[in-house]
Design brief:
alpha/beta; six-stranded mixed β-sheet; 4 helices; 21% helix
């Protein structure tokens, strides 16, 4: 299977390659570089992703289903709260589906957050497809703008630290010399055509 071009990979994030000024990033020996969205020096290297569905978030920062053991897991059948006064009977294993509403009750939001986490970081088939319309509606209401730093090639020299204050680091090739380090926060991801440690 042919490898995708840099431009094709950017389109997977709904990003127009023409909107990004591609540069290399080099972190010198024993230096610490902090990448933030407020730093004007890297303003042209930041794209803000706006997910259109929960599937976008899984592709961008989640764990692919292929990373899990083979097999088809059953959809989750745990109780879902539709309203605080209505609860499924544990004995009957009754399933209630949260509808795609213009606004959600706080207890529904708790459930949707849990479902979203399980979909993004677990096997997506553990979440019933009947819950996806509500998940996508809730996601739309969040108006998420997720920062992604985009560079052509990245080199982190020996003893250097690249500290990324964003959700995604995107590059063509990343080279990390011995003793170099790239730091990202929780629920972040690196997307590169290749990463090499020297």
């Amino acid at each position: 299977m042919p490898q995708q071009t840099f431009e094709e990979r950017l389109k997977n994030f709904n990003i127009d390659p023409a909107s990004i000024k591609l540069t290399d990033l080099d972190v010198a020996t024993n230096q610490t570089m902090l990448l933030t969205t407020t730093d004007s020096a890297y303003q042209d290297s930041v794209a803000f992703l706006e997910p259109q569905s929960i599937t976008d978030l899984k592709r961008w920062i989640g764990i692919p289903d292929q990373a899990f053991s083979p097999g088809h897991p059953p959809p989750s059948i745990g109780p879902v709260v539709i309203h605080p006064t209505i609860r499924p009977s544990p004995a009957s294993r009754m399933r209630i589906v949260i509808p795609a509403l213009p606004a959600f009750h706080p207890e529904q939001i708790v459930t949707l957050k849990n479902l979203a986490r399980d979909f993004i970081y677990g096997h997506s088939e553990h979440i019933s497809t009947t819950q996806l319309p509500a998940l996508n509606k809730w996601l739309d209401l969040q108006k998420i703008r997720m920062p992604m730093f985009v560079f052509r090639d990245i080199h982190v020299a020996s003893g250097a630290v690249l500290n990324v204050k964003g959700k995604i680091l995107f590059a063509n090739h990343i080279t990390i010399d011995k003793g170099g380090l790239i730091k990202l926060g929780n629920q972040s991801a690196i997307h590169a055509a290749g990463i090499q440690g020297l």
